[in-house]
Structures are given as structure tokens and as C-alpha cells.
């Protein structure tokens, strides 16, 4: 018999009628001869409603009590669905996360799954039962082995389902939801969003962590690491949906479902150059003009960084291969001659990168990378972060030393470490999907010392408070007193805690200040063909310029380009970028 894990989200279980319809769907699948483990979320908006109840009592509820409260939502749906299945003559039994043996760490509200003790589930499956399990929750063994109910974080039922599929070695994990699958962007904002038949786990990890709510990023991380076949499809229509593809070589041992070392590769790419344009005008269209000129001149730009602007002037920094430097310099010079500003460039640089699923979701990882470089006395010229990769551009003279120190720190073996790997064009689309993240704020720490270790200490201070940073940008412009600015984005929820932690830190740095940016959103285009295509960033910047939208910050990684823009332009920008890559064509593979 084939074992399937199926997950039904809140909207799919929003009413008794829908629960009955889901039960019918499960019956059809069982009648076809499959073994079934069904994971469910709370009905409709239950989790939001429970949160609102709590906020009527306190704005600062103990996390343990929030977990006690929120976990009740899923308990309602498992029991009702099990009853509906029994009504249809099927043998079904409901289990909470604890009863299902889902063991998590003890961090309330954001617990990661350590292991799943599957004996009870296996026994029930052997008896031919359909097992209905509460998603989003587990149990920590806690201090002194006193078990406590934990929750995994909003949207976490997807993660419960994929973790169960990995632990039970299920044939497939199917996520049933209120859209036909993963679309090129959020169909609630862009009506012409199209269904993708397939998407790689790396691309989906980026999209999910950049705001595409259709999948919890940690679910994608587990699917990638355990090579779980993951399909997202509609709860209502009988369509194929979207299949996530993963590179089988990532399969790791079954221990520590979400607790393995997230770094599984390290590479150094030599012969890199960086060009920095400073004091260029801060107005819509400048970035578009620059990167169009570079693309038309045949230059393939790798990383791009634009920090927050000052006095109506911007700095844009980007990296290219060493042999493209002269050409790139010439293109930039031509532009600077007409718009004003200064240009400087540097050769003999290398890019060092760590890989692994869910790197940015674990705040300690990037900070350990920066710390290791700083301990080795290596200054970081540029930083690029993504869910699957963090890169730093450094002096090439320090390259081998960096490789050794980082390899040792993350305990990587020779096979995991690569020097100048050749990447082959995969002929994948330059942009497969676009995500809009409205849940971010932008913070700058200004006038910080320009020396090795500054980025690291900022990140580790926040990491110690479990705050994840994203889009970290170091400004190129140094102030007269040899200080510089570092900007980043983080989740709105983490604002206050981040500010307290940073205020304590900067008390040691004379003149340093913390500044919160305007209301922003983050818009990101993701595609694994991006590194092989010239001019992708230019198209994004042009789409924004056409709508007179100014770009506050730019940050890229290999397979994504992110722009931070004013909140009021978010949805317009999403529509514009979506159509500029012709994603509304309905013949997407
Ligand atoms: P569920 O309750 O089934 O878990 P969610 O609300 O968590 O459902 O996720 C589905 C929603 O994700 C969709 O209704 C859609 O608005 C949103 N969404 C955002 N980005 C995308 C995307 N790229 N593809 C599909 N849906 C998306
Ligand atoms: N019920 C939880 C939430 O609303 C978990 C989930 O739906 O995946 O976040
Ligand atoms: Mg969801």
C-alpha cells in the first residue's frame, strides 16, 4: 500500500460543509487503496481569533500560555474531521501533536521539530486506520522531562506534514489549500498570476521566506533535506498542482529532522571585482539606467547592493568577474559623466559562500560566518544573504585562509568544500516567481566602526535574541571619522526587541545611532536561471522606474533580486514586475 501524507489548511476546513467535503476527498483516496496520514490546521481564522482574545487581556502574553491557547485550534479540527470520516464508514482516529510523538525543542511559539516517534502512528496504520494529526504543534520534553505543548510558528502545519512524511518515509506529501498550487505570485494581489507545474526547492525556499505564504519555509527545508516529494494543490478542484523538485544529493540522516547542521557546503570563487558608485542622484530610473547600460555592454553583474540614501544621493555597489571589470568600468564612467557622482573599483577579490537550506531562518549561522572571518582578521567588502546561501566578498589574499577557518567552524569535509566550481547554465527561467513581504521594517545602525567584526557583532547580538535579519547591506560610503552605516530588514514583530538589543550594543560605539526607515515593503524576484542571464536586475529596476517608484535599498543573491520600496507602492510594483517578466503568460512550465 502507498502511504500518503495529506495536509488541509485553515480555509479548506473553514466550515462544517468544508470539513465534510474534505472527508469525502479523503474517502476517495482511501478507497483507491492508499494508507493515509492527514494533517490539519485550525478552522478558518481560528488562530487569528484566539490571538485577538489573548490581546484583549495582555499585549505581552507568556509564550507558554499562547501555545496552550493556539494549539486548541487544531484540536477542534482533528476531532471534527475524524468524526466526519467515521460518519462515512471509515475508521479514523485523531491525535494531537503530543499523541503523534512530534518532539520539538522547547522554544515556545517557534519550536523546531527534533524527532517524530512514529510507533503509535505505525501501529494505527497497520490496523488500517486513517490518522488525523494536529498540525502546528508538538511537545517538548522540557526541563526535567516535563513535557510541554509547543507550537511551530504561524503557518507551521505545512512543516508538521512534511516532517511526518519524512519520518514515515511516505511516498508523497500533498498540501491541499485554497489556490491551485504555487503561483508566479500571490493571486490575491495579482489577478493574472499563473500556476507553476514545478519549482525547485531552492527557489521555493526563497519565495516562501520572502513572503509567499502558500508554504511554510521550514516545510520546504525539510522536503529539500529529506528529498520528500512535495505537491501543493487545490482542495476543491481535482488538478495536478505544483510539484517541488529537489536535488536528491541533499538527503541527510533521519536524526534531528529540523536540527541538523544547516550548512552543507562551502565555496570560494576567485577573480572577482567590485565597482562602487557613490554620490549618484537618488531618483527613480538611475539604477535602471546603470544596469541597462551594463547589460547592453555585455556585462553579467553578480551581486548588487544599494544602501539607504543620504542627502538625495545614493551609493550602488556591485560585483563582476575580474575579466569584465574594464568593460563595466567604461559603462559606468559614461553614465557618471552624465549624471554626476564618483566611481571606484577594486580587483583581486574573492567570493566565499556557505550553502544549506534555511540558513537565514537560523540567525546564528550568518553571524557565525561573519565572526569566523572577523576572528581571522578578514574584512568583509560585500554581504549577500538568501535562505540557501550567504556570501561575503573578501580580499583574495585571504581566500584560502577563509576557506579553512569556515570549513573547520562548520565541520565540513573536503567533498563539501569547493574552490572555483564551474556552474553550468541550467536553462531555467531568470525569474520564476515574485514575492511581496509586507511584514518587514528597515533599520540602519549608523556611524559604526569600519573594521572586521562590526557586521558580525550586530548580527550575533540579534541572533542571541533569536532575531533573524534579512537583506543586510553595508554602505560603501565611509564617514570622515572612519565609520560606516549598516542597514538591514527584520520582521515587524521583532522591532522592539531588536532596538533594545542594539541600543545596548551601540552604547560602546561613540557617535553610533539607530535609525528606523520609512514604512517599507520588500519585493523579490526569484529564479534559478538568474545567474546565467544578463540584465535581469535592469528589467526589475526599469519596471519600478516606469511607475516612478524610488528604490530605497537593493540586495541580491545568486537567485534573487530584492528591492526595498515604500509601502504604498508595494502592490503596484508587484503587478508591474510580474508582467515585465511575462509571468502572466499562461504557458508556464
Ligand atoms: P492554508 O490555510 O491552506 O495553509 P495559506 O493562507 O497559509 O493557506 O496559504 C495560501 C495563500 O497563500 C493563498 O490564498 C495566497 O493568497 C497566498 N499566496 C502568496 N503567494 C502565493 C504564491 N506564490 N502562490 C500561491 N499562493 C500564494
Ligand atoms: N493554524 C496555524 C496558523 O494559522 C498553523 C497553520 O495554519 O499552518 O498559523
Ligand atoms: Mg498555510
Key terms:
single chain; 589 residues; alpha/beta; Carbamate kinase; VC0802-like; 2 domains; 15 helices; 29% strand; binds adenosine-5'-diphosphate; binds aspartic acid; binds magnesium ion
Written account of the structure:
By secondary structure, the chain is an alpha/beta fold. It has two domains: 2-179 and 227-238, Acetylglutamate kinase-like (Carbamate kinase), CATH 3.40.1160.10; 265-580, VC0802-like (2-Layer Sandwich). The protein has 15 helices and 27 strands. The strands form four sheets. Strands 13, 14, 15, 16, 17, 18, 19, 20, 25, 26 and 27 form an eleven-stranded mixed beta sheet that branches. The chain has an eight-stranded mixed beta sheet with strand order 3-6-2-1-9-11-12-10, with helices on both faces. Strands 5-4-7-8 form a four-stranded mixed beta sheet. Strand 7 (137-140) and strand 8 form a beta hairpin. Helix 8 packs antiparallel against helix 9 (325-339), helix 10 packs antiparallel against helix 12 and helix 14 (536-546) packs across helix 15. The mean pLDDT is 92. It binds adenosine-5'-diphosphate, aspartic acid and magnesium ion.
State which percent range the strand residues make up. Answer: 25-35%
How would a textbook summarize the main sheet?
A: 11 strands, mixed
Assigned CATH class of the largest domain: Alpha Beta
Please tally the helical runs, counting DSSP H or I stretches of 4 or more residues: 15
- The count of domains is 2
Q: Which small-molecule species are bound to the chains here?
A: adenosine-5'-diphosphate, aspartic acid, magnesium ion
Amino acid at each position: 500500500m502507498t502511504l500518503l501524507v495529506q495536509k488541509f489548511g485553515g480555509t479548506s476546513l473553514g466550515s462544517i460543509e468544508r470539513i465534510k467535503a474534505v472527508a469525502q476527498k479523503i474517502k476517495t483516496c482511501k478507497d483507491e487503496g492508499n494508507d493515509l496520514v492527514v494533517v490539519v490546521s485550525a478552522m478558518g481564522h481560528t488562530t487569528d481569533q484566539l490571538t485577538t482574545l489573548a490581546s484583549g487581556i495582555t499585549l505581552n502574553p507568556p509564550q507558554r500560555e499562547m501555545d496552550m491557547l493556539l494549539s486548541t485550534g487544531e484540536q477542534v479540527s482533528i476531532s471534527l474531521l475524524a468524526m466526519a470520516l467515521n460518519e462515512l464508514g471509515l475508521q479514523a482516529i485523531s491525535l494531537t501533536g503530543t499523541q503523534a510523538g512530534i518532539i520539538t525543542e522547547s522554544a515556545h511559539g517557534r519550536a523546531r521539530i527534533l524527532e517524530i516517534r512514529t510507533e503509535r502512528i505505525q501501529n494505527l496504520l497497520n490496523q488500517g486506520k486513517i490518522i488525523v494529526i494536529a498540525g502546528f504543534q508538538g511537545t517538548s520534553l522540557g526541563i526535567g522531562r516535563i513535557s510541554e505543548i509547543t507550537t511551530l510558528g504561524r503557518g507551521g502545519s505545512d512543516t508538521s506534514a512534511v516532517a511526518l512524511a519524512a519520518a514515515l518515509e511516505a511516498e508523497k506529501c500533498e498540501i491541499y489549500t485554497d489556490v491551485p498550487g504555487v503561483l508566479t505570485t500571490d493571486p490575491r494581489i495579482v489577478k493574472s498570476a499563473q500556476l507553476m507545474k514545478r519549482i525547485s526547492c531552492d527557489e521555493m525556499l526563497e519565495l516562501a521566506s520572502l513572503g509567499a505564504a502558500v508554504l511554510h519555509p521550514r516545510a520546504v527545508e525539510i522536503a529539500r533535506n529529506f528529498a520528500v516529494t512535495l505537491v501543493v494543490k487545490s482542495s476543491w478542484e481535482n488538478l495536478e498542482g505544483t510539484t517541488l523538485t529537489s536535488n536528491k544529493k541533499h538527503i541527510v540522516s533521519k536524526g534531528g529532522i529540523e536540527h541538523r547542521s544547516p550548512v552543507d557546503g562551502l565555496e570560494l570563487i576567485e577573480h572577482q571585482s567590485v565597482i562602487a558608485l557613490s554620490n549618484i542622484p537618488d531618483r527613480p530610473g538611475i539604477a535602471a539606467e546603470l544596469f541597462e547600460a551594463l547589460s547592453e555592454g555585455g556585462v553579467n553583474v553578480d551581486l548588487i547592493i544599494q544602501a539607504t540614501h543620504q542627502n538625495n544621493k545614493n551609493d550602488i555597489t556591485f560585483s563582476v568577474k575580474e575579466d569584465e571589470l574594464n568593460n563595466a568600468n567604461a559603462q559606468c564612467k559614461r553614465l557618471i559623466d552624465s549624471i554626476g557622482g564618483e566611481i571606484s573599483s577594486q580587483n583581486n577579490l574573492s567570493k566565499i559562500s556557505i550553502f544549506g537550506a534555511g540558513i537565514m531562518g537560523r540567525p546564528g549561522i550568518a553571524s557565525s560566518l561573519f565572526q569566523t572571518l572577523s576572528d581571522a582578521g578578514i574584512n568583509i567588502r560585500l554581504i549577500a544573504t538568501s535562505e540557501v546561501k550567504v556570501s561575503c566578498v573578501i580580499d583574495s589574499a585571504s581566500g584560502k585562509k577563509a576557506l579553512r577557518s569556515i570549513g573547520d567552524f562548520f565541520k565540513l569535509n573536503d567533498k563539501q568544500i569547493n574552490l572555483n566550481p564551474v556552474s553550468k547554465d541550467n536553462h531555467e527561467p531568470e525569474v520564476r516567481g515574485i514575492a511581496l513581504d509586507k511584514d518587514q521594517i528597515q533599520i540602519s545602525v549608523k556611524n559604526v566602526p569600519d573594521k572586521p567584526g562590526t557586521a558580525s557583532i550586530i548580527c550575533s547580538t540579534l541572533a542571541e535574541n533569536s532575531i533573524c535579519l534579512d537583506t543586510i547591506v553595508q554602505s560603501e560610503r565611509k564617514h570622515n571619522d572612519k565609520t560606516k552605516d549598516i542597514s538591514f530588514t527584520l520582521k515587524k514583530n521583532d522591532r522592539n526587541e531588536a532596538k533594545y538589543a542594539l541600543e545596548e550594543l551601540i552604547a560602546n560605539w561613540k557617535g553610533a545611532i539607530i535609525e528606523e526607515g520609512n514604512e517599507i515593503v520588500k519585493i523579490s524576484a526569484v529564479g534559478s536561471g538568474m545567474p546565467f542571464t544578463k540584465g535581469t536586475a535592469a528589467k526589475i529596476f526599469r519596471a519600478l522606474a516606469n511607475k516612478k517608484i524610488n528604490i530605497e535599498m537593493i540586495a541580491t543573491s545568486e537567485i534573487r533580486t530584492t528591492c526595498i520600496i515604500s509601502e504604498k507602492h508595494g502592490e503596484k510594483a508587484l503587478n508591474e514586475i510580474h508582467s515585465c517578466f511575462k509571468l502572466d503568460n499562461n504557458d508556464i512550465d
